[in-house]
Design a protein that fits this description.
Shape of chain A: globular
Helix content of chain A: 40-55%
Strand content of chain A: 15-25%
Largest sheet of chain A: 4 strands, antiparallel
Largest interface: A-B, 32 and 32 residues
Number of helices of chain A: 9
Oligomer: homodimer
Number of strands of chain A: 8
Order of helices and strands of chain A: HHEEEEEEHEEHHHHHH
CATH class of one domain in chain A: Mainly Beta
Distance between the termini of chain A: 48 Å
Structural class of chain A: alpha+beta
DNA sequence: CGAAAATTTGACATGACTCAACTGGAGTGG
DNA sequence: CCACTCCAGTTGAGTCATGTCAAATTTTCG
């Protein structure tokens, strides 16, 4: 019999702090946030979103780790993004168009998220336009990161990309299987293994 | 003696239409936009932004074509984005942090842009919060495209990427040198030439 | 403990790069 | 308007980074 996972009902505090750092919130805004975001726990290997489904929620990771990926025609998995504590993850394309997603979001560890539904987010934007600004800034930052990633991928060979990954996500490397790192870097697990091997002997 | 380039003073109309399609504007907002965006013409090969400078303006392309790229340690050029009519281009990282950029933005053809300065954009956000929303949506769309691009780059080989490029930018392919297409696709011009050769004979 | 998942290793295949040489067209100055 | 340069594109030979496949080994976790 499985244990029923306990969800920390105070997790909203983390999100409120997160928002407040970006821009002070009034009490009403805080209540609005608290009322619209729902905590939810996913077990390792559980899916938050599956290919073919519409992405109905925005996820804010309270604890744990998620990966968002697609599977190409030849069956290879490509990880677009990891999300750990204090990161956002969702397929924005599917979310805003409300069309089926080509992406999967899956728990790499047991993970607690705060979720807001599509309609609730739109409503939040209307009731508190401040969130237009907050989310504008969030998305800008994601875009900047994504651009850097694209350049890394085009400009450096696999060894360097791996080194960069270790620098940028020092904590992650020990928490997740190398297979995932490989499919984030855009190489095969076998090749990553060979790279790691070289490193050790040096 | 060079001809003095003429700038279409009515180009703002295009931008106002563009905004209005996303979200209706009041007359005051329209005036605000008209007062803050300045038209400017760049000649082919002229730089809008150079590596090492701070990106001080947001650019909206009225006509022509720009490319944004970086040059990696080994001297190879990587094009992040083209911008043609009705597209936005700027190094958001540098723009918002006001730190020197690692990117270049250069005119591929004679190009007219509408520019808004950093402080003016912040002021616009304050005076008309509607633009927080408009730019949130714009950036979301850029992010979605950038994600697709990353996946393309990781998932498909050069031939397929080239076919996709032709589908996605049918007009561009005839307007710009193949060298640029190659450095957008992340391959060498020589290899692109070989791919194109194969296509013809089929 | 046992099954499933992750990692490693090696032989071989291949997509894409490098370099160098050549061609043709476009722009520029005399 | 010609001559010249420069830039873009092509071609080929050789090389290198990374992929494929299959098998053996190790780790993880129920």
């Amino acid at each position: 019999m499985e244990k029923k996972p306990k969800i920390d009902q105070t997790s909203t505090t983390l999100l409120l702090e997160y928002f407040s750092k970006m821009m002070p919130l009034t009490d009403e805004e805080k209540e609005l946030v608290a009322s619209k975001f729902q905590p939810r726990l996913y077990r390792k290997r559980q899916f938050i979103l599956q290919e073919g489904d519409v992405c109905n929620v925005f996820n804010f990771v309270v604890s744990g780790c998620l990966r968002m990926y697609n599977i190409d025609e030849s069956g290879t998995t490509h990880i677009i993004q990891f999300a750990i504590e204090n990161w956002w993850i969702s397929d924005k394309g599917s979310f805003y168009s409300q069309k089926p997603s080509a992406l999967n979001i899956e728990a790499v560890e047991d993970t607690t998220v705060l979720q807001i539904k599509h309609d609730d987010l739109l409503d939040l934007y209307v009731k508190a336009p401040k969130f237009d600004r907050i989310f504008r800034v969030l998305v800008e930052n994601s875009l900047i990161k994504m651009q850097e990633r694209l350049l890394q991928n085009m400009g450096s060979d696999a060894r360097i990309r791996y080194e960069e990954f270790l620098k940028q996500y020092p904590t992650l490397a020990n928490r997740i299987p190398n297979t995932h790192i490989a499919s984030f870097l855009g190489i095969t697990p076998e090749f990553l293994s060979k790279i790691r091997n070289e490193r050790v002997s040096k």
